[in-house]
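In response to reviewer comment 3 from the previous cycle, which asked for concrete evidence that the modeling workflow produces usable outputs, we include below a single protein chain processed end to end. The sequence was submitted unchanged, and the resulting structure tokens are shown without manual editing.
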Amino acid sequence: MVRREPRRGPRSLLTCGLPVALIVASGVVGQTTKVPSTLRHGSGLMDIPVAGVLADRALSVTYSGFWTSNDTDVTTDASGNITGTEAFLGGWNGDFAAALGLFNLFEFGANLQSLSDAAEGGTLWGAFGRLSILSPQTQPIGLAVGGRYASSPDFGDGVEYAPNRLGRADRRVRGQLGAREMNTGFSFYAVAGWDLPGLSSSFLPDHDFSFTVGWGNGLFKEGDDLEWYSSGDSGGWFAGVAWNLELADSRMLTLMSEYNGFDWNVGTQVDLSGVKLGAHVLGVNHSSNTTVYRSTKFGLLASVALCGRGLCRASLRDRPDPDVVVLPAAPPDTVVVTIVESRSPPAGTAVVLCLSTGDQIDVLLTSAGDTLVGPSRTSLRELRPTVGLAGVYAANRAWFESGEPITFEERPYGRIGAAVRLDCGDIRQVGEHLAVPLFVMGVDGAPPEILYLPVRPGAWQRYSLDPA
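The workflow returned the following structure tokens.
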């Protein structure tokens, strides 16, 4: 059997799609995200899923591909046994995928594979979906289950062919190879993940680590006993790790490595306010290019993530400020002379502020609009930015300023009325929304009708389960 692979080149329609998406999308900051984009299956690492999903109503559009550089490849018989070698025309293999997140629980989408030339083997397409049972960003461990579907190539010879893990048409990969079956049309998996904070360092930006491990059948497992298809047998297990570094506001760099059950892959992606650019090397564990499956391949990726009215904001999980107020220490070798003067206390109104940490602080509000803190009644304006009141607040966040609703226990809450003052003794924390804590009144365990969101120290915004 003589088999020729056509040289690949990307379709002009899809290469123009990403610039059009960039022009149409506005620059309004939306929800946050730090999960990279896979090559053809929505969010995840390069070729494996993760325990999290895209944010609610977030849309990801990705174009990716890789080059093959083999000069020769093996030929096989109907049982999958190697019969010889032949010349192999490598080239570019392109893929396009679109994914949508819903309710912070589901992610689903579709893809087109081997876009470079679908003349031989027909048009290849696929679909995928994932359900997040536990989110690794809010729980100690994340859990998710999902599946992938891939269509089979059709060479018009009546033979039933099977999809393969590279997403390209191949006459050698058949549904029945002698006594072997290649059940790769549907692939189901379960995956767990952990997010661990990074190390404190003066020379590294804010960062954290994400770990992933899972098991799947289909494309994660089938074909592990074919010498030309696989160099090892993982039994369907896959794993990966990512190092996420927040370079600046809405700028993130991710370095990652994974094992997809067959290949060790390494890569990097940079997220520039929802526009992701990446490079990856597939199959670094293959020392010689014996076949296209057992060879090292280099690829590129471009992706756009849209959240609500604009591009998604690249960010690590927001970290609350320390729950203490620390005044700057005197410089070394400085003698501080305190002169006690008899003077009247500053005029103002004594106010007790309830902070988002659940603590209360006594301050003095002057007629000039200044806030005085501490026994010496120091102006908070003079202490900033070194010192501020503890807690995480919603003020100046895009989703709060635009009046977007919030979600708690899968229920939407709408904003009502103006900001109010609260007594910390009357409220308790029940959760958080995008790292800003949520509070309710009293101790009743029933689903709350009213939620309280800290806007700034002492000011709380009410959200109602039924805004009408």
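The first helix runs from residue 12 to 24. We consider this sufficient to address the reviewer's concern, and the full set will be provided in the supplementary archive.
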